[in-house]
Amino acid sequence: MAGIRSIIQSREKHFNQVICLIRCVAFEQHINEVTGMGSAHTTERIKVDDFVREIDARLRALPDLATENVRAVRREFSKRLSNASPQAVIDLALGLLNKPGIEHRFIAYELIHHHRAALGSLGEKELKQLGHGINSWGVVDMFACYLSGPAWRENQAPDSLIHGWARSHDRWWRRAALVSTVPLNNKARGDRGDAKRTLSVCRMLVSERNDMVVKALSWALRELAKRDSQAVREFLAEHKDVLAARVVREVNNKLTTGLKYPRKDR
Asked: What's the whole-model pTM score?
């Protein structure tokens, strides 16, 4: 009887060890899925879909879509995805772009921007995918300041891509080309300064008259003026007869007073 009891106890111990091993393997697989470290693309894909649904639910539950509320959601998921693979983060962003509302696109772009590896992996193909559907100045500026501009600055995207946007019949892509120059010159977004690449785009759009693009042209030149004022002065002098009046006025204000709209003496 004692022998039988010993055999049963031995088998129970072995069974419990097997169960423990299974649970450890399952837990490891779960961690890999969450962090994007799983080797199987299908594993990452399933987890990406879960994240898309969770982010969507969190956004729907917000009391309002104020920037600080939406950004708080993004920050939480940035922490959870800090060890995720670049492709997992990009796939998540693309999944969010299928959802309606600018808030989903905002989170999509910021998740990539704040994930160094994902941002560093962007190339021409990914930028075209992530820029699909841009249709307002706010969306364009997020895309260009967070993604295409930094990628271009780091030579991950060719000049030909940005120049192609500048030649587009779509005003939003023309604006994207110009706003992509901002991270080349804006201190908060890189601060290297690149007059050559900036002016190559501005030169292509000197005769632009669409208001959304004209405003972006003014912005691009005013940002460059902080880094290379002489180059901007020469550009204005060369093209003053074809540039929109707004561009000449605002950029000259920036060069002479440091302000886009200088205060008037009372």
From this structure: 0.81
Residue 49 carries which side chain, given as an amino acid letter?
D
* pLDDT at residue 31 in the model: 40
Per-residue pLDDT of 136-148, as tens digits, reads 999 999 999 999 9
Distance linking the first and last C-alpha atoms of the chain: 107
CA 117 → CA 44, 111, 143, distances in Å?
A: 16, 11, 17
Rounded CA-CA distance 42/52 in Å is 15
Tens of pLDDT, residues 190-211: 667 999 999 999 999 999 999 9
Residue 49, helix vs strand vs coil: helix
The tokens describing 221, both together, are 């030149």
Domains of the chain: 137-266 (1.25.10.90)
Structure tokens at 56: 């969507």
Length, in residues, of the chain: 266
Take residue 195 and report the two structure tokens written for it: 């007059």
User: From residue 191, how far is each of 39, 171, 182, 208, 240 by CA, in Å?
Assistant: 37, 27, 9, 27, 27
Distances (CA, A) of 153 to 119, 147, 252: 12, 10, 26
